[in-house]
Amino acid sequence: MGKDYRRRLNIKDGAFAAIPLVIGYIPVAMAFGILSKNTGISLMDSFLFSVLVFAGASQFMALNLLSLGTGIGQIILTTLLVNSRHFLMSASLTTKLTKDMKKWIPFIAFGVTDESFSVASFKEEELTKEFMLSLQYITYLSWILGTVLGYILGQVLPTIIKDSMGIALYSMFISILIPEAKKSNKVLIMAVLAGIVNTLLSYLKITTDGWNLVLTIILVSILGAFTMKEKEVSICE
């Protein structure tokens, strides 16, 4: 089997693997676009948000922080903390990448998401650059497309529907939390504790809402690192 044929086959495999992710990405990205319109940022800003950040949950969170008047520095730090799990996912994938991928590493690292990591980690064969780039950048383009479509729809949808899209952020986090909470009671305890800590900090009004979120993430993460067993930590990752 020739090298060109194998490359085409890997590209095809990556494209097929991306289809279920695209089906899930476009509606969520449209919700983000609609919320972007409601938040008051421009179409170009919303477009660049998805082009440059490409991190679903963090983009929703950043929009929420923007609506609260949170400073840019706090938003960047909060996003970094929420996305720190990507360091672990990327490190895990490097053990399966082929050796000819050195110059493609930055592009593959940028395209790592929870969903693409899950698909790639279950692939038994080595991960070629053709498979990874096809998988990641088809989903990337679908996320950008969904964002633009959602923003445009946000200009014509009735106000009651646009306002209801605000629940998309909370729905996304709940959908991530519940499956993990079913696997481990400590995950549920950490989530509840995070809510209590954030509520307490908000009540005390020591810092702004943005810094309250940053402090909550740091404090609860440190506590979780010391109290959760190695097996349970791997589940959360």
TrEMBL record:
Its main location: membrane. InterPro entries: Brnchd-chn_aa_trnsp_permease. Signal peptide: none annotated. Pfam families: AzlC. It comes from the Bacteria. It is a multi-pass membrane protein. Keywords: Cell membrane, Membrane, Transmembrane, Transmembrane helix, Transport. The chain crosses the membrane at residues 15-35, 137-154, 187-204, 210-228. It is found in: Cell membrane. Belongs to the AzlC family. This is AzlC family ABC transporter permease.
